[in-house]
Amino acid sequence: MGSYAGVVEDEPIWRIVLADDHSMVRTGLRALLEADPRCHVVGECGNLSRLAGEVDGAKPDLVVLDISLGRENGLDAVPALLALASPPRILVLTMHDDPAFAREALGRGAHGYLLKEAAAAELIRAIELVMAGGTYLQPQLGAQLARHAPTPAERLSERERDVLRLLARGHTNAEIAHELFISLRTVEAHRAGLRARLGVHHRSELVDEARRLGLLG
């Protein structure tokens, strides 16, 4: 890590919880982070079921979160962590180098995404940026995401996809409202939003988009 002799005493101390299912990884991360006097590890967790409780009790400023927590997906914890009375910042630290994971993590509300192969200094830089209120994405993944930016259709929410699927199958607005347990006005709003976002004006075009997204089976 190198020396942190230049860090002044009044710089912030970041309270950190480590969420990783490998105890040796947590031990290594704790040693690495606490070599920086700004970092103080206040808790560890190795499974998803205990994570929200651990964070709620420890009240950390930051959670360093792995995606793979045993057989569970660590990203499933992000919404619950952000809903806590004192929500932490969240930095995903993982071996998954597929940019789709990075897109999902940031889409769910994580504040940073870094690969475990990164140098220790890069981890500290990521924490600095995240704790300053920014978002950190490992540069190589950022470049890949820029080359493969999702289309407007690929950015549709699950509810929008449901409405699009039923529209493409010929259902009326009233039938869609009944099927999805939503109001007729909500269906009409979704329908107008789909036309605007997808740039389509005819039902045949909606059918084409639904088929392209694999919504018609």
UniProtKB/TrEMBL annotation:
InterPro entries to which the protein is assigned, alphabetical: CheY-like_superfamily, NreC/VraR/RcsB-like_REC, Sig_transdc_resp-reg_C-effctor, Sig_transdc_resp-reg_receiver, Tscrpt_reg_LuxR_C, WalR-like
Domain (Response regulatory) ranges: 15-131
PROSITE patterns noted in UniProt: HTH_LUXR_2, RESPONSE_REGULATORY
Keyword ATP-binding applies: no
Protein keywords: DNA-binding, Phosphoprotein
HTH luxR-type domain residues: 149-214
Positions bearing 4-aspartylphosphate: D66
Matching PANTHER family: TWO-COMPONENT RESPONSE REGULATOR
Protein name per its UniProtKB record: Response regulator transcription factor
